[in-house]
Design brief:
Layout lengths: L13 H9 L1 H14 L1 H4 L5 E2 H8 L3 H13 L4 E4 L2 E3 L2 H4 L10 H7 L2 H8 L1 H7 L3 H6 L3 H7 L1 H25 L7 E5 L5 H9 L4 E6 L1 H13 L6 E5 L12 E5 L7 H14 L5 E9 L7 H12 L6 E2 H10 L2 E8 L4 E8 L1
Parallel strand pairs: 4-5, 4-7, 5-6, 7-8, 8-9
Antiparallel strand pairs: 1-3, 2-3, 8-11, 10-11
């Protein structure tokens, strides 16, 4: 794997900095092209000429060369000799089977449905309404239910992120004190399965919409964990399974406004054992002008989800308080997410 010198000059002129920001969407689409064509997979055994890559992907040789040259300039791939490209540490993350693959995320970020919402951010800033509400008159999740290909695209991106998030959470928090863990809105089960494999005495319950729960049930069974994990199809706005001493809510709270997010937390508070804990695994906005990807992702919440918002720690404290909980600690982990632990008041 080639090592690429990514060191920049100490002082980049403001004009160059802003120009790079303005053309940020070009980087997104170049990464989409590489992911869609599977270039990283083709290079996993070593450098190859662009002609071979074009033949394998049914691409136009000169155009593919120009795209790979641009990506190499970003540190994604490297041209080892004229017309030959190899993986770099960044490009390796676009391999399908890479342990922390971001291929699914790249495919979503460059997809048509995802780009349409970002293209209407101006209207969302003006109105406070999401693209899906103003264009289709429905919540994003309802739109996705009606567009299975786009729903699969999002699911692949979330699975892509879940791999690294699961490792960060498993190592960043000690789950050994829990006997039964309820994963609220647990999706297809990747995260809960990782926890159960890390903590062999832990029992799990996963709650999600019936269609998603079917996928989770298949994953849990395939992982050989069905003797320790129950999967339930339901609605976390109505109720959550009772009797858990730990309730994880990962990547869910930021999708909803305070009223609906508060309902999820309240339902967990009412269902948990007296000494139970709620663990919100979500994004937190840092104070002041601190650079943070979460501040950008907050704009994605605005454009995509009516009521979706990334909250500050103070906003989380208020949200927890209204649900009869108090925050006992906030743990940073190597992920966009933090672990926000809440206990009954």
């Amino acid at each position: 794997m080639a090592e690429v010198d990514t060191q920049q000059t100490a002082a980049v002129p403001p004009l160059a900095q802003l120009a790079d920001m303005i053309f940020g969407k070009a980087q997104t689409h170049l990464l989409f092209v590489a992911a869609k064509l599977g270039i990283a997979d083709l290079l996993q055994d070593g450098p190859k000429p662009v002609a071979d890559l074009a033949k394998a992907t049914n691409a136009h040789v000169p155009s593919l060369y120009r795209a790979l040259r641009a990506l190499a300039g970003m540190g994604v791939f490297a041209e080892t000799e004229p017309g030959y490209f190899t993986l770099t540490s960044l490009a390796d993350l676009l391999r399908t089977d890479a342990p922390s693959s971001l291929k699914g995320l790249a495919l979503m970020a460059g997809s048509d449905w995802h780009n349409r919402a970002w293209a209407h951010l101006f209207e969302s800033v003006q109105t406070g309404k999401s693209y899906f509400a103003t264009t289709y008159g429905m919540h994003m999740y309802e739109y996705l239910r009606q567009h299975p290909a786009d729903q699969d695209n999002l699911a692949e991106a979330m699975a892509s992120m879940s791999q690294q998030d699961a490792v960060a959470v498993c190592t960043g928090y000690d789950f050994s004190a829990f006997h039964t863990l309820v994963d609220v809105g647990g999706g297809t089960g990747y995260f809960l399965a990782a926890l159960l494999k890390t903590y062999p005495t832990l029992k799990g319950i996963l709650l999600d919409q019936p269609g998603v729960a079917d996928q989770a049930r298949a994953r849990i069974k395939a992982e050989g964990l069905d003797d320790r994990c129950e999967v339930i199809g339901g609605d976390f706005f109505h109720s959550v399974p009772r009797g858990g001493d730990g309730y994880t809510i990962k990547g869910v709270i930021e999708n909803w406004d305070d009223e609906r997010a508060g309902t999820i937390l309240t339902n967990c508070r009412e269902a948990m054992n007296p000494e139970g804990r709620v663990l919100v695994i979500g994004m937190v906005i840092p104070p002041g002008n601190t650079p943070s990807l979460n501040k950008v992702l907050d704009m994605e919440m605005l454009a995509f989800l009516d009521g979706g918002v990334v909250r500050t720690e103070a906003e989380f404290q208020a949200l927890f308080s209204r649900a009869g909980l108090k925050i006992s600690r906030v743990l940073s982990i190597p992920s966009p997410y933090s672990i926000i632990e809440g206990v009954p008041v």
